[in-house]
Amino acid sequence: MNLRRMFAIVQKELRQMSRDRITLAMIVGIPVMQLVLFGYAINLNLRGLETGVADQANTAGSRAVVMDMVATGVIDPTYSATSPQELMEQLRRGEISIGVVIPPDFERRRFEGREAVQVLVDGSDTVVQSAAVQLAQLPLGNTPTSNLGPARGGTGQVAAGQIGVVSFYNPERRSAVNIVPGLIGIILTMTMVMFTGVAIVRERERGNMELLIATPLSSSELMIGKVLPYAGIGLIQTTLVIVLGVWLFDVPIRGSLLDVYLASVLLIVANLTLGLLISTKAQSQFQAMQMTFFVFLPSILLSGFMFPFSGMPKVVQWLAEVLPLTHFLRLIRGVMLRGATLLELWPEVLALLAFITVMMTATILRFRKRLD
């Protein structure tokens, strides 16, 4: 083995690597991104879950119970309601994750040792369900606020465990019910961005760009023509995951199947436009695939698929709102598991439409039908 010749190869590789800005970005960016995401953004302890409160008793004791729950940091009472039915509607529309119901006879139930508070929880997210169960272990306090009588057992102490949990949409706590709808989004994000990420670059590498220059195609016609075939592939993948999810794992589809496909189409187009934008920037197919990695990692970790969205710091949540997968997960779980409609989930639909508009406009503006 000739060390001198081997060292020359090492020098050549290092020089080549230093000229490739995407590779340099991956060398530094990937470990930094993972360190920040896992160390700062990922938090398995849920905090600040959006909560609705229906305090029908409205006594000093009932208000103290709510304050005790808020003090745990798990819930954030952002909505007030007048009845349990109103809370259930808010749960179905995804406006809240937890509902707290305090009945009018709260004080009597409390001192008789019966269930005095109900926690309604969106069971489609098993992590939220676990947080609600922990919340139910909270004692209601020992200080009587009325003279209705002593607690059961005649000790004058209020019995703990008087908070009941009612779980909706997934009372069996099956993880497949939560994961399978999310998998549609993960698969579409991984494949759609990568497919179109190499689309324009491949034309350039194979010399087909000269043919496109000679045609009367406009930039927008070429972009849309590139997107449509992959959109069909995305719909096939969606159908495959839905059929297997229902058949193998008994995942329910409580909402409209049309809404499921419309939500999928929105994510497919969003990912395809993002992939096209990457394609206009990359110089080679390999570089395009490297750039797509910077989309996969935050999408999977920050969208709420693997880790609870509410456990992340606010700054990270704002960043995650930019990702199309975040909004799709809220849509698909809302439609499939809670039976909500796209009209009821309109903020997520608008967010995806805005993302598509911005990405498509940027792609068309960046694309130039020229060899360089």
Q: What is the terminal separation in angstroms?
A: 42 Å
Q: Spans of 5+ residues with little confidence (pLDDT < 50)?
A: 143-160
The coarse overall form would be: elongated
Q: Averaged pLDDT, please?
A: 83
Number of helices: 15
Helix and strand string, N-terminal first? HHEHEHEHEHEHHHHHHHHH
- What kind of sheet is the major sheet? 5 strands, mixed
The percent of residues in helical segments reads: 55-70%
- Cα radius of gyration in angstroms: 26 Å
Q: Give the percentage of residues in beta strands.
A: 5-15%
Query: How do the strands line up in the largest sheet?
Result: 2-1-3-4-5
Number of strands: 5
Structural class: alpha/beta
Structure report:
The chain is of the alpha/beta class and 372 residues long. It has helices at 3-19, 21-41, 60-71, 84-92, 106-112, 126-135, 175-197, 199-205, 209-214, 219-249, 257-281, 285-302, 314-320, 324-338, 346-366; strands at 49-55, 75-80, 98-102, 117-122, 163-168. A five-stranded mixed beta sheet has the order 2-1-3-4-5, sandwiched between helices. α7 (175-197) packs antiparallel against α10 (219-249) and α11 runs antiparallel to α14 (324-338). It starts with a helix and ends in a 6-residue tail after the last helix.
